[in-house]
Write a structure and sequence with these properties.
By secondary structure, this protein is mainly alpha-helical. Helices cover 40% and strands 9% of the residues. It has three domains: 36 residues, no CATH class; 187 residues, Intergrase catalytic core (hpI Integrase, Chain A, Orthogonal Bundle); 28 residues, no CATH class. It contains ten helices and seven strands. The protein has a three-stranded antiparallel beta sheet. A hairpin with a 4-residue loop joins β3 and β4. α3 runs antiparallel to α4, α4 runs antiparallel to α6 and α4 crosses α8. The longest helix is centred in the middle third of the chain and has 19 residues. The C terminus is likely disordered.
Length: 275
């Protein structure tokens, strides 16, 4: 009902702008439209990843390295899948202090196969979490070169396909769900990465307003155009996310009497030598 109402109202508003009709007839009093509600009121509470689950996704070598890089961008930078697919090395400034910076203003649309403005139409500057910086550094020096057969240039995509094209978001979604199954993790949406960034930042003591300025930089009103959190304050907020890259290798656990020990890696294995 809400979708039909707002679509019809937008159509008539366009007619007003074109001076075809004097006013918009699609108006209702407050409280008439049904409220926005989730079909399953419990799903939103569960739509989040723990710090340990994020560490698994970005560290476990059973997941292809380019997908681990993508997950690190999404879970530590708050980028949507389309935004991460559109990022180029020239968007990353590693020498900015106190943390490096990624500037994002584009997103890849897999359906139309075009690069467009982001959903909000606002470019945003994201501090690079120390763990993300570590992943990007290793990827640029070794992984990217091995995948593409040459050194990356500023105009190259950070996570291209082997054909040097944008990563298809629909294929990335399939890979994401397969990786969750591979790690024995509960199925969730890639979009929950942004919710995870905010939640882990709040858990670490970061300011809600500063986190919002990083993940949702769209100005709310005219006053917001005249203020912005300092770069140092935004870096401090991102640094409060306690997620590290697990060093080591996955080894298979041997069940004892049919009961395999459970740990951070689920029932299938654990990281040997990790902190």
């Amino acid at each position: 009902m809400r979708a039909i109402f707002f679509t019809a109202r937008q159509v008539f508003q366009h007619l007003v702008f074109e001076e075809i009709i004097p006013g918009n007839p699609i108006l209702v009093p407050r409280g008439v439209l049904p409220p926005v509600q989730d079909k399953d009121p419990t799903w939103r509470v569960k739509a989040i990843f723990t710090a340990g689950e994020v560490e698994q996704l970005i560290s476990d070598e059973r997941i292809a390295i380019h997908r681990r890089v993508a997950y690190t961008l999404e879970f530590l930078g708050g980028f949507r899948m389309g935004e991460a697919s559109a990022l180029r090395w020239g968007d990353y400034e590693p020498d900015i202090e106190p943390l490096g910076r990624i500037t994002s203003g584009l997103a890849y649309n897999s359906e139309r196969k075009v690069v467009k403005e982001t959903k909000t139409g606002v470019a945003h500057e994201v501090p690079v979490h120390p763990t993300l910086a570590k992943v990007l550094g290793a990827w640029k020096l070794t992984g990217w070169r091995q995948r593409m057969g040459r050194a990356p240039r500023p105009d190259d995509l950070i996570i291209p396909t082997k054909n040097d094209t944008h990563r298809d978001v629909r294929k990335a979604l399939e890979d994401f769900h397969q990786d969750l199954t591979r790690l024995g993790l509960r199925r969730r949406r890639p979009y929950d990465s942004r919710r995870t960034v905010i939640s882990l930042g709040l858990d670490g003591g970061a300011s809600k307003d500063i986190l919002q300025s990083i993940t949702h930089p769209r100005p709310a009103d005219a006053f917001d155009l005249y203020r912005s959190a300092s770069w140092a304050a935004r870096c401090e907020a991102i640094a409060k996310i306690r997620v590290e890259l697990r060093e080591g290798r996955v080894v298979q656990l041997v069940p004892v009497d049919g009961q395999g020990p459970r740990g951070d890696m689920g029932e299938t294995g654990r990281v040997e030598g990790s902190a």
